Amino acid sequence: MKTTNIIKAFSGLCMALGLLSACEKDGDLIYISSPTSSELLASKSEVVLLQDDADQTAVSFTWTKSTVTISDESMGVADDLITTYLEASTTEDFSGNVVDNLVTGLTKDYTVAELNTLATNAGLQAEVPGTVYFRLALTTGNNMERVYGNVISIQITTYRIDMSIGFILDGKQEMTDMRLSSPEENGIYTGFMGVVSWYNFFLMEGDGTIWGENTSIFEISTASNIWNLWFPSPGGSYYVIINTPIEEWSALYLPTLNINGDINAEMTFDRPNNRWTYVFNATSTTALNIQLSTTGKQYNRETADNDDAAIDTPVAFVQEGDHLIMATQPGTITVSVPETGDCTLIVDLSDPNNWIYKVVSGIDEGEDIPEVLYLPGIDDLISGDWTFDNYASLYDENTLSYAGVFNIHSEWGYTINIEDGNWNDKYTYTSGDAYAGTIEFQGEGLVNIPAPAPGVYLVDISTKALTYQLIELENEVYVQGLNDEWDFDTPLTAISTGVYQGSITIEFPAPYGFRINLVNGDWDNYRFGGTDGKLYYEGNSMTDDENLSPGTYTMTVDLINETYTIE
After folding, report:
1. What is the distance of C-alpha 106 from the center of its chain?
2. pTM of the predicted model, to two decimals?
3. pLDDT by residue (tens digit) across 291-310?
């Protein structure tokens, strides 16, 4: 059996090996064997992958435990001494391209998307059945030769990975309706996005690779510890370039879009629909010749999100067939007028592959989005009646998401109404339970959403996804980000219903501000930001520490009324 010499020169090495007895003296030689091979098994020998099933499990691997022996039988070996890789290749002897994944435990599940990416990287042609060979490779150190186990084969039919589309994920890495385009499939994604101030997001490529940030703003990474990307302070229309080959992105803000020519006016940005509109009165159906231009503000790695540093940049559009392309100088754009009277000029930038312009009859300025949703019935056993006193506030226009913290004690459940005092226009229950489920507008039977056990809850509602979710709050919430510490070591304790209080220490202004997290251990979800004493769910981080001297303060947050104080 092949052996590896390890000089027992440091006690730390003894600990790394998990020795059960102490090293007797420096210089003793201990021999450990290479690991024994493991038997690899797979749940399937043939699989056809479909993109619609991307999140489903495609195949599961299991294997037997490998062992090593040590020359001194009085000593033990740590379980984590062996490093295990699952290798894949399209050649049975693994002489070609080899893709390996570090694995732990004795099992590995691949989703359809993961296996599709692996097989594609190994060299399979899309939509053509091919064989991929798998084996385990084990080693006891980076410089040690690998020990290989049995080889198994799986016939895999992959789907084509479309790298021409970049999918915009929200701060929770959930899919939105926004897309960017990479026509050359070269990892450079462009397009317009309509966003609110400080909107945060991730980019997901067609192969499932997710890009975020883990160094500084406008630099991107696929590291496991990435944060979300975020836009600067102005909300509105941005032309975005995400360049994955050089790992950076930029955002060109359009504060206005001016019309000149047969019409001279300033258009209005319809953010939820990512388009610009202008309503005018047409006195004839004669075609109009116009120009579209503005001066944008360019944000990039050099400017960061500093508004004063943003670079003035000319932006214009020219006509190319029935769509628009960007330019630095405006060209003449000819638009047809369908009829006299009220008309709306629309410049629609929502499709990154097809920016269109048109005039439609009537007034079409986009649909108003309610700022709040009302929850009558959610506290009738406290207030004694159904009222419109409780409401959830809009925090994401793109997903039409609303949230708020409520003291819930309800006898008959509750509804979600869109207007104060309007009992008729409402969302009602369709499936699920008191803590998560689906809703519909003016649902059949108008069934109330079930009431949970009495308590303080965060209620999160999406009228686009037609879902609701309740998270019960514990006795503590957590301040994160102070002194650039992003742990859960600064709790605020409940002093009354929905009100939390505790001591915070400020040493220096936090570079990214600070926030209130509701759930211990969850860095990315269920958090409040705020400004000037007002809390906002998923809002910008608080920056009060910039104006406070170093020292210890008492912080009080009222999550139900969405206020805070630092004294």
Report:
1. 30
2. 0.62
3. 999 999 999 999 999 999 99
